[in-house]
Amino acid sequence: MAGFFASLSKTIIAGIVILIAIIFFGGASAKMADAGWWTFFMRVLHVTSGVMWIGLLWYFNFVQMPSMPKIPDDQKPAISKVIAPTALFWFRYAALATVVTGLLLATMQGYIGDALMLAKPVTAIGLGMWIALVMAFNVWFIIWPNQKKALGIVTVAADEKAAAAKLAAMTSRINTMLSIPMLFCMVAQQNGGL
Ligand code: HEM
Q: Are residues 14 and 53 located together in one domain of the fold?
């Protein structure tokens, strides 16, 4: 048992097997002929990737950044050389997956143009989409290139490294700020929040 759960891939496969059992025994298999069911399923994929993205953003801001000053210098490489690069890998690809599934979802719902123009009645999701698109831009074009310099994945002079670390941290904080109204807007569309 412990051996099974020592493997992340086996754990994920087990989760998917439980999901398939719920889908079939719960009767959802009969609904799969409906396009609406696949829109629902895209929503599941979207929220799953969004949880991983924002979960890691909050891990950086709530856990890793405040803990760094408390870690002795000789132990800091465990974070900067091992944990942060792995977390950043899942972070940026989860952001990409969230954008792709979100845009597909809006297309499948038939309101992508209206949402991007903040037209009624999809103003809430349009606002959420724009905020999340800015956040995803920040991840790929500000946080990641600057983290590469800050973590030593790309070699630069010491002052450039310090400036890159500062910019990456500030942008990560901006995304944390934006995540609060973004999540409200995402959930508001279906649930009468706005
Ligand atoms: C550019 C990125 C994003 C786009 C284009 C996007 C798009 C969408 C769309 C079209 C919906 C369906 C709204 C509806 O008709 O109910 C939705 C719902 C949702 N999204 Fe996003 N989204 C993005 C980012 C995120 C992020 C980062 C999260 C974080 C977890 C997130 C979480 C959710 C949630 C929880 C829902 C509500 C599902 C429901 O109420 O059934 N989205 N999003």
A: no
Q: Give, as one character, the DSSP assignment of residue 152.
A: T
For residues 94 and 175, state if they share a domain. Answer: yes
Answer whether the bond into residue 121 is a cis peptide, omega within 30°: yes
Degrees, nearest 5: CA angle 186-188-192? 155
Do 88 and 50 share a structural domain? yes
Could you tell me the distance, in angstroms and rounded to a whole number, from the CA of residue 30 to the centre of ligand 1? Answer: 26
Give residue 22's domain range: 1-33
Measure CA of the first residue to CA of the last residue in the chain; give whole Å.
47
Question: Residues 26, 43: one domain?
Answer: no
pLDDT digits (tens, 9 = 90+) for 10-48: 999 999 999 999 999 999 989 999 999 999 999 999 999
Nearest CA to ligand 1 atom 32: 47
Residue nearest to atom 19 of ligand 1 (CA): 186
As a whole number of angstroms, the distance between CA 85 and CA 72 comes to 19
| Cα 81 from Cα 171, distance rounded (Å) | 21
1, pLDDT greater than 90: no
